[in-house]
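Appendix B. Raw example, untouched.
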Amino acid sequence: MSGSTTQGELFAGDDAPPQLSTIVINARCSVRTFEGRRVVSVGGMAVAHYEVGDVASEAHAMVTLVEEAWADQVEVARAFDCSARTVRRMQRRAEHGGIAALVRSAGYPKGRPRLGIRRRQRVHRLKSEGTSNRAIAALLGVSEKAVRNFLRRSGWKPSLAMQPELPLAGADPNLSDSRTPSSMLAFALAENVASAPSLVPDPVASCADPNLSAPPTAPSAASVNPPTSPAPSPDPTPAGADSNLSADADEEPLEVSLDRDPADRRFDRILAVLGMISDAAPLFRNGTRVPRAGVLLALPALIDSGVFDSARKVYGSIGPAFYGLRTTVVAMLLMALLRIKRPEALKEHAPDDLGRLLGLDRAPEVKTLRRKLSNLAAFGRATEFGRALAERRVAALGNPLGFLYVDGHVRVYHGERTIPKAHVARMRIAMPGTTDYWVNDARGDPLFVVTTEANAGLVKILPPLLIEVRRLVGERRITIVFDRGGWSPKLFKKILAANFDVLTYRKGRTPRVARSKFHERVATIDGHKVEYTLADQRIRLLAGKLTMRQVTRLSDNGHQTPIVTSRTDLADIEVAFHMFERWRQENFFKYLREEYALDVLVDYRVEPADPTREVPNPKWNALDAELHRARAIVNKLSAVYGIDALDDTDNLCVTLSGFKSAHEPHVRELTAALKRCTKLEARRAKVPRRVPVQQAVDGAVIKLATERKHLTNLIKLVAYQAESDLVRAVAPHYKRAEDEGRTLVQTALGSAADIEVTATELRVTLAPLSSAHRTRAVAALCDELNRADARFPGTKLRLRFGIHLPAAETTA
């Protein structure tokens, strides 16, 4: 007998027999119920007998089964229709108070705050508005658990949609209501895929019905800085054309949707499986306090960056899918801005909440997003994608693009594979890793990034890098700023011949400049007051074949920092200022490591590397290290020998031969050490200093795959650019923008917001920030973003932003 069996069939007669039921706990234990009594038996022996409804006795039986190791907690919980957590709680009660503690006292639990009738009504109202349990608990002054238990006891169920179902645009009004999306889908499949666009709704009209009333919780104009709406522009779509399609061939064609409910996209998912759509059309729904909806503030800046147009032109499409190219790019950008630093971190966030920011019922989850990244990486077009983004950025910057900062960043690898090493400056050690070279503008914003072939140095990577820069900036003369890693007078001649200027630190030992040649310099550059003690002079390199300008800075501690440049038109203080501004790029690397997880390994794959590439010979390095140790011994013995000669104050050894004889053990030891150094030098001279990498490593010559990492670097690059644009936009309205600008923008992007959808607009109203002056600054930022007249990607909905103003200002 297994499970629950009824034995009423065993009784004869017309009278209804008493029911006997048996529940098997495991191979030894069972629970039988008969005529209102229950028996718990183990191996056929009764260990507990009680009436049905005796809570204390049943709890004692549960505890006994577990404590005597007759059954485990899960088996007991399954048999008595409770949770394993309940069984553990009963064990703790019995341990501390015995059987009496298993009887729960009547009435409301002591020490637990009650929710009055008005407060209960308020909980239901807040919950229906989309407020989280944590926020409700904070408003009422109770625990989140109390709110959750109250909602469970009161039988509250969340509604699937926050507004009535949206009508099907394009449908025949004469059709009966029985014409559902499912019937339309069947009709479209039966007729032809080509006829489907005429039967499916316009995504704009599907997002909102102008005849629908506003949600009951819509913010009033008195308490909100309302998103302003400019005068409607005439629709460029000609009469008779499909309103879902763009009038411009270069613009993205809008997807169509068969779904009526934004919270239920089952029909679009069916179309994606059938290969009828390449991306799901964004459909939004009204809601209040939508978590993290403030990140939509970044969309105008992201659109201006051209990331969506560039992705469409470079990649085209990633095939029929519900999460297509546009949705994937939008999701990765918003993830970066929300500090969701890797696809695996999506496990910590509700897909429904993130999906509302994308206009979908659910956001892509971990495996889906990783698969989309693999699909994009398979194209092998990350370099082309980065070039398209850089061209757009250069065109936007225009003339201010006069200085470009170049520096490498090493991504350290801690895995088991053997890959080339690179010097990590911040750790002052060589470690396995891959070097990415970033080019930043004078403001510190990244322009483009290049992944080198097996950690090539800056001297080797600069020539091809400058070819790419020339392709981007045209014939303009640009100053290239880099650190000592790129010091090479021969390279300087090539850079100058390519119509570039050089600005870098001087490397190696240099003669000190006389103190009389230094002068105090004070100036205000780019709004910053700077003071330096500088000396300006001309120097000759390459045996007088190359003349450069050297500006040396004298620090308070007497240290001299020589700066070499080919710019003769700048004042010495301007040369020093632009050189020291290179630390903007260092701060950029630090910020991206901490906030955007720049060093995270997104791909564990490897690919073959060039086996003929020369690397330092390990044998030569070993001999060199041994020679260094031998020389250290020689130096030590020589010091001892010299000290003995110095201590010979009594002139016991009148002649040198006598001194040697007196210190014969030291002489023999020192002579042997010198001979050993000579032999090591001869052996090292016969070993080549550099060899092909295939001779230096065991096994295949490999490197980390670069395509996916390059692609994610570009996504983080665009997200950082958008964040920087928002910081510059809010700076005139926030006094501490230079110190706290990014913190303010990051807070606004992560805040909750109300979403309201109309026939032509997507209105986002942020919750007020922690202080009134911060809220006012974001309100001014919203006004500026509204003037951009941006549209949500994949729709015709204009983005309109606002923020709830403090109560004191609304009453004024």
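End of appendix B.
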